[in-house]
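Reply to thread "Modeling small-molecule complexes from scratch"

Following up on the discussion above, here's a worked example others can learn from. I took a protein sequence and the SMILES for S-adenosylmethionine and predicted the complex. Inputs first:
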Amino acid sequence: MITEYLQFIARTFRIYDGVIPSIEKVLSKTGSDSIVDLCSGASGPWSHLLRHTDRIDVVLTDKYPNLASFERISADSGGRISFSRDSVDATDVPEKYDGMRTIFTGLHHFHPEPARKILQDAAEKGRAIGIFEFTEHSLPAILSALLGIPLMVLLFTPFITPFKLSRLFWTYIIPVTPLLIMWDGVISDLRTYSVAELRDLVSPIKTENYSWEIGKQKSGVLGINITYLIGCPDKQA
Ligand SMILES: C[S@@+](CC[C@H](N)C(=O)[O-])C[C@H]1O[C@@H](n2cnc3c(N)ncnc32)[C@H](O)[C@@H]1O
């Protein structure tokens, strides 16, 4: 229910729309049109983001794949979104996945050592990677999660797909879902890497001919701060 809520929010508020130009720039540089989305959860923002570009194809992957969700999103995508039925660990992605890797709202799940492994794996295998986080370790973000998320869950639950009676039950009869998603939001904000922490993560990675770009940009209808980290081979691998 948490990842379906995340997908709904990303789509409704176009949270990640602003990062498409950066992704397209990397794809042009690496001569690829393929995305391998890691930690895809309930599929994340890609089904929505693909409306902004007709050149990109996406493979959804997760260590614990939500196959029901992947199948639904793939069937509605006109062949542009496929998915892996097998578990794909973001810290050691099989060589056969040769597109640019993306992780939306996911890096904060990893402690520094596995987070660095995710970045190192991409760099060592010569794959581009884009990490995008709309959560943020800041007082305004934590206060908005504390106060805003329960209200948003109560307001938006009837519109979240797929329709599930259980979602209504656990939101309006026994309100576990608003509290759980609020807790997840606050902890995610607290755990989100800052720009300086992301720089520290990549600094020991000494792969040659590979560059990192780290920063923040405003995105979406709410102008939310997205923290991004983009790794890209200097020349095509
Ligand atoms: C917060 S969800 C990300 C949601 C999704 N990207 C989105 O934008 O809605 C984090 C996901 O990471 C997955 N995950 C956790 N550890 C992983 C790992 N080592 N490799 C790949 N996926 C992992 C979880 O199964 C979960 O679906």
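What I'd highlight from this example: The pocket of S-adenosylmethionine is lined by residues 3, 6-7, 10, 38-42, 44-45, 62-64, 89-91, 104-106, 109 (CB under 6 Å). The beta strands are 34-37, 57-60, 81-83, 100-104, 129-133, 210-219, 224-233. Questions welcome below.
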